[in-house]
Amino acid sequence: MSVFETAEKIKSMEIRGAGRIARAAAEALRDHALSVQAPYHAAFRQEMEKAAAILVATRPTAVSLPNAVHFVMTGLTGVKTTEEARSVVVQRAEQFIQSSQHAVEKIAGFGARHIRDGDTILTHCNSEVALGCIIEAHRSGKEIEVFATEVRPRNQGLITIRTLNDAGIKTNFIVDSAVRSFIHDVDLVIVGADAVTVNGAVVNKIGTSQVAHTAAEARVNVIVAAETYKFAPRTIVGELIQIEERAPGEVLADEIARTLPHVTVRNPAFDVTPAEYIDLIVTEQGAIPPQMAYVIIREYLGWDIGEFHSSAALHNGQDD
Ligand code: RI2
What we know:
- By secondary structure, the chain is of the alpha/beta class.
- The protein has 12 helices and 10 strands.
- The strands form 2 sheets. Strands 3-2-1-4-7-9-10 form a 7-stranded mixed sheet, with helices on both faces.
């Protein structure tokens, strides 16, 4: 798929979910490297940097996207010929895709161990890693039940309940505002993440912080399933995660909104759950308390302060 097609599909959310977006971006860079015609190496590099910038600009919140692009593009450092550059992009893109898929499987295995036989789990939105944990627990013979929220306004809950239904897992489908009514029937909350900041806060689908707050009040544990590439390196130097605000039409039909001139529709796609409401973040490197996010950024993502000076081209458009 071309870079433009991939970018359009990410923007329209035809391709969605932080992990899938990251893998789609790596694939698009790989395909672009294979097809781009450039007379000399600098031109090739320029073409790749343009493609990287287009992909990174599609959605601002999921940090998996700039992290994937960064992983692929840093392969170009020190490379001298177009052919070498082409092959390094292909190799690193494939490596990212494979390690991402491997991470999702690993997390499913680790996360499933936190689910006990007889547990009822609540999940919000549609996270392939969170669902991976639930499905793996079911597969290993544990008798479990799930509460899945609707997820206004894009209804990702529908994807979640189809997946759970196909896996044969007993599932209750509830509106987002019903979480508090059912929290006492829930043993564990498992959600995904679009970004994890250096202080262990988790940015995820709008409503996650309400779910986590409700769970904390009811003394129900909250687990976040997140690959290490969901951790946000630039938060070390004070950068904030930009919360995407999507079109008002997703919430209220434009023809109705037009009749209400004093009403403004707000549609943030994500919110921030503070570390204190999260018991554990399960990564492919094992589970950590959210307060250890810095270690993941330094040890496993390989970012140090020096990197921030050379990464201007891959800046993901957030405010400095
Ligand atoms: P996985 C999604 O965002 C949801 O917020 C979900 O929790 C998160 O990405 C992580 O998804 P959106 O693309 O990578 O639906 O775990 O806005 O699949």
